[in-house]
Write a structure and sequence with these properties.
225 residues, 15 strands, mainly beta, eight-stranded antiparallel beta sheet, six-stranded antiparallel beta barrel
């Protein structure tokens, strides 16, 4: 019988939570708004009418990594495609229901909440090089940041993408530049925007910057008490 952790999949079905699937061998991530659990409880059925990209690259017995986003939390599990899209499946793909589901641990550090007009520059790699976007900073902690972005921009990013960010924090304002990885893309309060959750990459190349950010945030939180 499936582990109790997989019950989150039933909750995700009821909430029509988005699911993302990506071949372990690499390739395009497919995002679909909602999925179904088959009556025998052993299969996940994903309707592909509203998929973010073609599912034609999927094939039987292919190993996948999957993630469900529910209430801002990302739940991950390995999956296996047993029935790819063909004429008999009517534009649906079937995955074996996982035995366990893991919750990605979100930021544990206390977050500093910013006014909605606080901006952060987001640099995303494209086919034409690096493109800069100005977004709104929602909160900041020593290990990550959340930004409010336009929905069109959300389609330019994917889970685990690496980006570069620039922002100011502290009083007086102090500039920071860090690399980060996309960890969450969730819906905002309106259809035109999404919330982008980024985890700072602490790769040893910027220890001074990270330590200084921690000091600045500690001062800001003390001053707000």
């Amino acid at each position: 019988a499936p582990d109790v952790s997989t019950l989150v999949l039933d909750e995700a079905v009821s909430a029509r939570a988005p699911i993302r699937i990506k071949p372990l061998s690499g390739g395009t991530t497919i995002e679909v708004a909602g999925f179904l659990v088959e009556a025998d409880d052993a299969l996940l059925r994903i309707e592909l009418e509203n998929a973010s990209s073609t599912a034609g690259l999927l094939f039987a017995a292919q190993s996948l990594e999957a993630a469900v986003i529910l209430d801002g939390q990302r739940y991950m599990f390995p999956a296996r495609c047993i029935r790819p899209v063909d004429s008999s499946c009517k534009n649906a793909v079937y995955l074996v229901r996982p035995e366990t589901v893991s919750a990605w641990q979100r930021r544990r550090s206390r977050r500093y909440q910013f006014q909605p007009d606080t901006s952060v520059l987001l640099f995303i790699g494209t086919d034409q090089g690096e493109t800069c976007f100005e977004t709104a900073m929602l909160n900041l902690s020593p290990d990550g940041i959340a930004c409010r972005i336009e929905s069109t921009l959300a389609y330019m990013t994917d889970m685990d993408d690496r980006v570069r960010i620039q922002f100011e924090a502290g009083d007086p304002h102090e500039p920071f530049e860090l690399s980060a990885r996309v960890r969450n893309i969730t819906q905002s309060g309106d259809a035109d925007h999404a919330v982008l959750g980024l985890e700072f990459l602490l790769d040893g190349s910027n220890p001074g910057t990270c330590e200084r950010l921690r000091e600045v945030l500690a001062d800001m939180m003390r001053n707000d008490q």
